[in-house]
Amino acid sequence: MSTGSVAPRVAPARGASIDDLLAAISAGHRPDVDETEVLLAAPLPALFRVASALRDEGLDRAGRPRVITYSRKVFVPLTTLCRDRCHYCIFVDTPGQLALLRKPAYMSPDQVLAVVRQGQALGCKEALLTLGDRPEERWPEARAWLDEHGFASTIDYVAHVARLITAETGMLVHANPGVMHPDELAALRPVSPSMGMMLETTSRRLYEEPGQVHFGSPDKDPALRLKVIDDAGVAGIPFTTGILVGIGETVRDRAESLVALREIDDRHGHVQEVIVQNFRAKPRTAMQGAPDADMHDYLAAVAVARLVFGADMRIQVPPNLSDPRELGLLIEAGIDDWGGVSPLTADHVNPERPWPQIDDLAAQTATRGFVLRERLTAHHEYVVDATRWIDPGLHEPVRALADATGLAADVIPRGTNPRATSTDDASTGGDSAEGGPLSAEASSRRGFSSAHGGASGRDPGVKRLAERAASRASDLDDDDWVRLLRAEGAELDELTAAADDARRYTVGEPVTLVQNRNLTSTGFRRGGRTGSGEFDLEDAAEIAADAAALGATEICIQGSLVPAEDPGAYLDLVRTVKRAAPGIHVHAYRPADVRDLAERGGLGLDGALTAMREAGVDTVPGTGVKILDERVRALVAPLDLEIDRWIEGITAAHRSGFRSTSVLFYGHVETAGERIAHLRRLREIQAETGGFAEFVPIPLPGGDVALVEGRSPVDEHRAMVAVSRLALSGSISHVQIPWTRVGRETAAVLLRSGGDDLGGTLYDGRVLPDTGIEQGRELPVSVAERVARSLMRPFRLRTTDYRVAVALPDPSAPYIETSGGTRFSLPSDGPRT
Asked: Mean per-residue pLDDT for 402-421?
């Protein structure tokens, strides 16, 4: 969208050099297709210099100099059924796959609200509705679901859900339902202040030729998609679109795609942002063996998009589809928006690529001299000019979330529906098509139950309690949670199904694993090993180097040193490991170990944590506690750190910048109420510090005391995992299954009860395997992959802090020097001129 005057257009002479063409663009020339094709092959430093300058000019003109934006969102995959057959897509399912996954054809309103309310509590202002194109036109199961619930089409249901989200939570919807007709665009405009659909490419070859990525996908006809984008302009809808780089298109195709989008925006001014997205190959797709988009080509496409559209367009890239080391390059290439980033939900379209932490994204943005600011679903120019661009019925919800400049205000969204005072009310759905509140009777006619119970004194049942927990865990009291923990039979099945839905619609489908090795620091002997389980610094170096050679990205070090050892050895061990295996992640020292360093080393708690950071510790274990209750500690583990001191230690670690695990050991003398109190306390700590990365419910060895007499051990574990997921959802994202305690077969069952992670490989290695606390219990990557495959779920190797596991940077890799004089390594073949 152009918002201000531009310099006179200066057309370069045909055959002019790249420098002449770039000079003309700087002076206001708009490149045609031929020129754009030439630019896509130009040297990156030259492209970056002009693209960055144009971006900065546009930001100055927009009144937000040096500001890069993002939208804090929740991702709602309303249905994964689709009539298209794109060869690179892992988002879609068939009805048969849905049955195997125990997954509904469409998310219900309750399931949608369960996710959206958690996002609302985290300050999200956007709900991104993503779904397959017109599934009812291919799948009878989709048509039957819509008929049963009273909807004429999938788009009709999208409108219903969008209206419900804003009415009940105050959040704004960005609808992304694929190809739409003008009447459907008109139907969604009153409930969605912005919409979107990627053009991807204008290549007809990819659509018409058998074997190409879009063959057999009627909604990927480039002419049809261009018409939808144009129709959105006629309808006055702020619209997001863009191109996909690396799916088999030619450089000419990219040039034609960018110029075609510019021509549509020239007619209407409604294209609020252009996404330049890089292809990432996904397993279990026809393109799983295709290479990812070449980094050089991708950077060129980003920079050229800025040159084609000029200073005033918002150019967006998805930050999770690039390595964090590459984000600075993308800023240099002229972007000014990171798109939607979620603190809660996965990127369900790219499940193997988790979102960056928003604080990390802000820090990465700051390294290039920019400030990260939150925006709404509609960019600020359209919010400021809402009379023209946004339906009158949405003016109040938009105003409630916007600041004076049109960016996002620092507020928590609030529902606008006066009836939305409890989960009981929320279950009845949103507004009717006529705009009034949708009554319980109308909701029932659409096939959605509105009876939660509770308010009338009736027993709501485990299923409804679990659904309420998934939506707002704070609504349940201790008796409710205890009831869930004691569920059996069919009720336990309902509980685990609700927990698995909560997992599916937040962290997504991937089963994750980190490649790691344990090193038990209690066995350290500076003078040299004399017995089993012992090691010295030289051994530690060999252990770390061996683990890295096996593919490990983490060394986990924990256990208090024996009193005879100098506490400085805690730090020496970390330094040794880091020197022997550069780049490996050190996950080290429980609160009890840190306390030992602090007290015997004379450093104090804060000093010990600072010393650990300087030595190279990256994250800390949250172990060394069974249940946060002194009664239980005195009976089961009297030598453990006192509960208050453990809490003091873990919160101090979080405030020092360390993330940690969290645990609960169960199956001994604790009561159900004490388990619930432990989970509540973890939520409180997380609300204060945000430092827990995962939660691990661990059966205590030899303590198989069932909460329910006669209930099988596997059902004890199912109930504990499910309640953990529901009680911590929206707080601690990941629930890890302790396969070393429950076995691989039971671990697979628990991954269907709300779990999403298998912990670590626990490599024994080839050097002193007895120095690891769980020696002899390796989980090879191939076995973990088979577990995920048996569940019809994707598998992903992760880092300790749940980022994508990637190879360490090669110091000999080629680099480019940016306009600011900074050198960036290129993970591909390097710059081409």
From this structure: 79
